[in-house]
Structure prediction request, 656 residues.
Amino acid sequence: MKKIGILGGGVWGSALAKILNKNNVVLYARDQKIVKSINNFKINPNLKYATFNDNVTATTNLSDLKDCEYLIIALPTKEIREVIKSLGKISTNQHIIIGSKGIDIKSKMFPYDIVKTILNTDNISILSGPCFSIEVAQNLPTAVTLATNNINMFNEINLLFSNKNFRLYFSDDITGCQLGGALKNIYAIAVGITIGLNLGENAKSALISRSFAEIIKFANLMNAKSQTIFGLSGLGDLILTCNSLKSRNTSFGQFIGSHQKIDISGYLKTLETTEGYYTVKAVHEISLEKNISMPIAEAIYNILYNSSSITDEINTLLNRPATKEFID
Amino acid sequence: MKKIGILGGGVWGSALAKILNKNNVVLYARDQKIVKSINNFKINPNLKYATFNDNVTATTNLSDLKDCEYLIIALPTKEIREVIKSLGKISTNQHIIIGSKGIDIKSKMFPYDIVKTILNTDNISILSGPCFSIEVAQNLPTAVTLATNNINMFNEINLLFSNKNFRLYFSDDITGCQLGGALKNIYAIAVGITIGLNLGENAKSALISRSFAEIIKFANLMNAKSQTIFGLSGLGDLILTCNSLKSRNTSFGQFIGSHQKIDISGYLKTLETTEGYYTVKAVHEISLEKNISMPIAEAIYNILYNSSSITDEINTLLNRPATKEFID
Prediction:
């Protein structure tokens, strides 16, 4: 029985704890209520339909995860730096699996680089793909990409999961595998806004296909492989997120689209982490630095950070002059 | 005022008649009831929320369309050959816009080639993209691709529509623009089956992203441009169709997925044309001829034509061995 630590007591960390429960799983959460609920009642109240077995315990004490053979990061991206610093030095034999999706707003780094810089290890994999936590917890069929520099590590982690309804596919593209999962949240907000404005499914589908073109453009800039972007962690996750109000980012977009004049940053404080809000700022800065045009991301940045009119920004996107489809 | 003929009295032809109603529009339908309803009551009973103005009339007589400056084909693909033959010779000045999506099961030709062969003209454009007819008729924002060999013709047709909520984007890729709209119906059936089997949104999104990879593979074989496949007529239409039970193909898939043992060809007779049923047979034959592997299309072919078990075929698709994402 392997010992697996999971950083993050949200629905994603808990869903992973649930499907890894043939192992010895210790879940770290800051919220005492979650920890008590898991230890005493074997449930996370935020993750419906899932109970844990006795192999799963929770703790508020980071040092309880020190001796784990595998460490899964399922934190909001903006908390990774602080938590990993608090965790302190770990053994280079310990393998880290990053399940967080986003870009750090200050350093403009992906989670892989944040973790690598602090811990000075490259014994790190990326887990990303189209997966709603609640479906993973219900053991519904799910396919994700696991990106690692080391195929042996892929095989090892694959055995660790060994669940025919949660399938891992190998990739060696660390950057590409992080990129789709981060950027999709921006486009989910855009799509959510069109839902809030009742613009219909034709407009939504046009916007998703243009969003994908924008992601590919950004990916080329970052030297990610196109194939990764076409895969589960890219297109798959974009499609999942944009097509369901179960996604936090899409439902956030829907809310602001249907309410127009609201205090966005005040509203965000009432929600669980809406990664797209942070990612779009990082992407905005990167696109300025690198001088690439990303009109959809820019519109969302303007709405969220410059109080631009939602209807004006969305109308500008939908009413580009009739010309070649791929203008940029 | 230009004279526009529309072949096909289904919802798509009628939606186009509605948005083109600043012109003189004559709609050809075989169904007398539809023709009477349009002429006497200015509605097509199958297309909700839309009334026509006096510029729109309908006829059961093909020769009433002989002198149209523009002829739009909105027929089921399998009827194009017969109707165009009955129409007979037209002037080479007349411009044909094809709005049908599919591949002819006998000749394995796209609509463009069927029409070109019979009429010996290349004054033909392709209109394709993510558009539910009902949303077009409601004047909700819609963006589509118009592929033509002649940019002047694009500009002319663009003026003809001149509707800020129905926007055309130019492409010169005739094959690519037909390919996405034809193939997506196969994958919509596959996705519908996963809905019928209650497999969840994770599985659905994984299947759509793999379907897209399969479409790209087929497109490469056909020398279509990848950019077209990433655009409105490719990815955009795939996303729209697969994510809504408003699509005939998706809801057909859902029905057979949730009913298991049914007489598929008998059930099909009760429905409006389900293009995917025909397209998958043509694609199956092309993939055999050209020796390319298209596992999802093949699974749907086996279900529809070889009475294969739905659950077995879908399980095989979802449970490919854990290995590289892009195995083929």
